[in-house]
Design a protein that fits this description.
This protein is 43% helix and 18% strand. It contains 10 helices and 12 strands. The protein is globular and about 45 Å long. The relative contact order is 0.16.
Length: 291
Amino acid sequence: MKNIYSRRDFVRCGALVAAGFAASRDVFALAQGPTSAVEASPIRLGIASYTFRNFNRAQMIGFLKQLNVLALNAKDVKDHLPTDTQQEEAALADYAAAGIKLHAAGTIYFPKDEDADIRNKFEYCKRAGIGVIVAGDPAPETLPRIEKFVKEYDIRFAIHNHGPEDKLWHSPLDVLKAAKGMDPRMGCCVDVGHTVRAGTDVVQAIREAGPRLFNVHMKDLTNFQSKESQVAVGDGMMPVRKVFEALIAMKYKGFVDLEYEIHGDDPMPGVVGSFTNMRGVLAGLGYASQA
């Protein structure tokens, strides 16, 4: 793919990031006051590589460094984390050299109720040292077979809800019903945007998921009935502060990964705005963001 980002574009992105960091510091200072102690945030921010789906791995690594975000939820899109063993090894070497750590992979689809297909995907994640599989649309009847691999590989399996269009998993509540009684490493990835579009209270869903919540995909909407109304996090109606408060209260140990699905050819302005706003919320809660 032709690199459509010129040096001028990268300089522009760098300026956006710098401005975003400055804004975050200003919000933090106002929230803390001159004598308040600073606590490290229990919320760990990361990013879903799907955000940069139109860019190759080298470009994405450059963006992550600009953002000061080194926690990645990787997907087999472009060359981000190829399923081919040798190509995957090369990708992992690039991430290690850049100081980027992979904590999850997905969305990975499980259309077949077959050991070979499922094992290949668990091996793919094992090679990458990934502890959470974000899974898309596994059929309910395949879950007992998948559970066997979860136990064998000790990798958590987080079913991603995809809103009202999803024939199986509209809401995290559907996932929790299916996972009830299964191994505790069978659980969910709460996509906050798809959750609210399904008519589910996202904060309550997070609380109900409890220890079965392994990943959060963060986004924002200006209209909870419209998938097309996505905006930068903090610019819409999403109760970001309440989401963070719920995660903190339940001592959530996973990552909150920004998944910015709009402006695929020029995502950085919205990505910068999202991290600025999320860091600002954390500052208002008395925390210094870990990312």
